[in-house]
């Protein structure tokens, strides 16, 4: 009856309902939200992932394997021992019949070419020094990967929260459109009612997709956090803090204002990245490989000694035993197809490592400039959202709602304005997260090798 008493205007009840949603909608969403069973900070996630990374353990075993090989490579080869019977007569097989018959004990020791033993050991030691650098790079990569995944989860969770907070408002708008249409008050049409319901359905579908994405991202994060000895995060649900973590850009002074310039300080700084320092170790090891290949031009020596035992003659007279000593060596005369090619192969391998190092440094320099440009644009967008766009979209939404409640606006405009305001909030959060993800990428590139 009260609604029918109003003439030409939307009911006071409708206005009060809309205002109550605007004021109390957010608090209801917060009250109805489930309490997190546990919170996982970014620092915790990075620390757990690094501690539980099986790749690091595998890398340590490989280093130990190479170190053991280096010890073995510096040792002389085992001597060869021989035992033989020489000049045994076949007519009687009598050991004492002939004076030439002997029981011989011999030993032969091979001596490596030149300094090949020391060089082989040095080369393997140089290779083993790459592994700590690989682990440093792996830890930095894990930190970057976990940070980006954590931020993706945070963005998805915050987007869900924003939509859930605004959903009661869209429900109230749909209810208002239905009441106005059924009471034939104002300019509300059946199309407005259908549109309101469609937007609610689209919000529900959007929430469903976001929850699916959240489940997938959390599963990926749990994979990083789980190990045989540490699986608490795999056994229970976790939530993230409500605020973004404080991720600061390190070595910001290296970024030049002119994005097309590469300063000497930046090149030197990137050259100390664990990956590039590891390439330096590869180059050093390949230098040693060249020296090792050159040892093939030197002869290989073999020392041998033998003792020949002779039995007494048939008359019982004693025969003197024999002792022999000798040396043998090969003569590298035909080196064109073997030794020369080995040296050439080692040289080419070293040059390939140098080219790979330069290629990686060039890629890093380009990545720094790329992320620097993205960071500048994202910062501009942050300022635009915080200083203008968010406020303007809120004013637009309020203005269209006021116009509609006074029969001077269209319901479709109200829905569009509210959806645009919600999307702007989500876009603002996305920009904040993308800004931090770009900082994470730059921080990885600025990682320094620990000496």
Explain the overall architecture.
- Residues 193-220, 387-432 form a coiled coil.
- Keywords: Coiled coil.
- Helices cover 63% and strands 8% of the residues.
- It has 451 residues and is of the alpha+beta class.
- The chain has a 4-stranded antiparallel sheet with strand order 1-2-3-4, with no helix packed on it.
- The longest helix has 67 residues, at 339-405.
- It is elongated and about 140 Å long.
- The model is unreliable at 1-36 (pLDDT under 50).
Descriptive labels:
single chain; 451 residues; alpha+beta; four-stranded antiparallel β-sheet; 4 strands; 63% helix; 8% strand; elongated; disordered N terminus; TolC family protein
Q: How are the SSEs placed, and which strands pair?
A:
Blueprint: H1 12-32, H2 42-51, H3 54-73, E1 80-86, E2 102-111, H4 116-128, H5 130-182, H6 190-225, H7 264-271, H8 274-294, E3 301-309, E4 322-329, H9 339-405, H10 411-445
Antiparallel strand pairs: 1-2, 2-3, 3-4
Helix pairs in contact: 1-5, 2-5, 3-4, 3-5, 4-8, 5-6, 5-8, 5-10, 8-9, 9-10
Pfam families: OEP
Family: Belongs to the outer membrane factor (OMF) (TC 1.B.17) family.
Protein name: TolC family protein
Radius of gyration: 40 Å
- Share of helix among residues? 55-70%
User: How much is the average pLDDT?
Assistant: 85
* Largest sheet, strands/sense/barrel: 4 strands, antiparallel
Beta-strand level of the residues, as a percent range?
A: 5-15%
Please write the string of helix (H) and strand (E) elements: HHHEEHHHHHEEHH
Low-pLDDT ranges: 1-36
> Which sequence of strands runs across the widest sheet?
1-2-3-4
Gross geometry: elongated
Question: Span between N and C termini?
Answer: 84 Å
Number of H- or I-type helical stretches: 10
DSSP E strands, number: 4
């Amino acid at each position: 009856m009260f609604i029918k008493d109003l003439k030409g205007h939307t009911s006071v009840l409708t206005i009060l309902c809309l205002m109550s949603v605007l004021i109390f909608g957010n608090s209801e969403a917060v009250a109805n939200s489930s309490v997190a069973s546990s919170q996982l900070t970014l620092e915790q996630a990075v620390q757990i992932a690094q501690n539980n990374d099986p790749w690091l353990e595998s890398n340590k075993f490989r280093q130990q394997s190479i170190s053991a090989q280096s010890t073995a490579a510096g040792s002389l080869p085992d001597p060869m021992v021989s035992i033989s019977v020489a000049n045994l007569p076949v007519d009687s097989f009598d050991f004492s019949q002939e004076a030439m018959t002997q029981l011989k004990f011999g030993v032969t020791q091979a001596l490596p070419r030149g300094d090949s033993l020391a060089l082989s050991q040095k080369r393997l030691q140089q290779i083993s020094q790459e592994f700590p650098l690989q682990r440093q790079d792996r830890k930095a990569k894990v930190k970057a990967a976990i940070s980006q995944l954590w931020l993706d989860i945070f963005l998805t969770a915050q987007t869900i929260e924003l939509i859930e907070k605004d959903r009661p408002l869209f429900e109230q708008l749909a209810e208002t459109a239905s009441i106005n249409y059924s009471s034939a008050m104002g300019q509300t049409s059946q199309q407005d009612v259908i549109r309101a319901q469609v937007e609610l359905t689209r919000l529900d579908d959007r929430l469903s997709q976001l929850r699916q994405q959240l489940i997938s991202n959390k599963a990926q994060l749990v994979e990083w956090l789980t190990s045989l000895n540490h699986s608490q995060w795999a056994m229970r649900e976790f939530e993230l803090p409500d605020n973004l973590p404080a991720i600061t850009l390190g070595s910001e002074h290296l970024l030049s204002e002119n994005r097309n310039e590469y300063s000497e300080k930046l090149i030197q700084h990137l050259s100390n990245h664990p990956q590039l320092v590891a390439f330096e170790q590869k180059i050093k090891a390949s230098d040693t490989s060249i020296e090792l290949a050159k040892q093939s031009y030197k002869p290989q020596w073999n020392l041998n000694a033998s003792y020949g035992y002779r039995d007494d003659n048939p008359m019982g007279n004693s025969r003197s035993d024999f002792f022999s000593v000798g040396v043998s060596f090969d003569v590298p005369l035909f080196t064109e197809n073997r030794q020369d090619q080995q040296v050439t192969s080692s040289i080419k391998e070293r040059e390939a490592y140098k080219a790979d190092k330069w290629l990686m440094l060039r890629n890093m320099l380009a990545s720094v400039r790329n992320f620097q440009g993205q960071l500048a644009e994202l910062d501009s967008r942050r300022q635009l959202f915080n200083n203008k766009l968010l406020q303007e979209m809120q004013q637009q939404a309020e203005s269209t709602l006021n116009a509609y409640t006074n029969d001077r606006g269209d319901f479709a405009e109200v829905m569009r304005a509210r959806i645009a305001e919600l999307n702007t909030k989500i876009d603002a959060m996305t920009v904040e997260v993308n800004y931090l993800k770009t900082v994470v990428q730059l921080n990885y590139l600025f990682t320094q090798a620990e000496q």
